[in-house]
Specification:
Elements: H1 3-17, E1 24-28, E2 33-38, E3 41-46, E4 49-56, E5 60-65
Antiparallel strand pairs: 1-2, 2-3, 3-4, 4-5
Length: 66
């Protein structure tokens, strides 16, 4: 998935939440990943996969397909 598609899908998830959340996007080309940070949640995507890693709180972690 491209960085633009990653941003689009994350923004769609935020809209579904129904609350206003500030999201910052980063394209980490050195590590080959996309990062979206919002409050205490970090979403990590990859150009070669449709799944994202979700990290939140104190050490919680999950993987989701978007």
């Amino acid at each position: 998935m491209s960085f633009d598609m990653f941003k689009y899908k994350v923004k769609a998830l935020v809209l579904k939440a129904g609350v206003e959340i500030n999201v910052r996007f980063f394209n980490d080309t050195e590590m080959g990943r996309f990062v979206a940070k919002c409050d205490d949640v970090t979403l990590i995507g990859s150009p070669s996969c449709l799944k994202i890693a979700v990290k939140w709180g104190s050490g919680h972690y999950g993987i989701e397909r978007i």
